[in-house]
Write a structure and sequence with these properties.
Strand content: under 5%
Number of strands: 0
Number of helices: 1
Helix content: 55-70%
Low-confidence stretches: none
Order of helices and strands: H
Largest sheet: none
Radius of gyration: 18 Å
Distance between the termini: 51 Å
Length: 43
């Protein structure tokens, strides 16, 4: 981590949140796919 710059903080936070959101979406998608392949939902 480099020296913290006050003006940079909100932008960095937004970037991090977006990264985590993308990560969560990918994980959820993979999890759902796994569940569907293991327990095939009739229909």
């Amino acid at each position: 981590m480099t020296e913290p710059k006050p003006q940079n903080t909100p932008n960095k936070l937004l970037k991090t949140i977006r990264q985590w959101l993308g990560f969560a979406v990918v994980l959820t998608g993979a999890f759902v796919l796994l569940l569907e392949s293991f327990a095939v939902i009739p229909g």
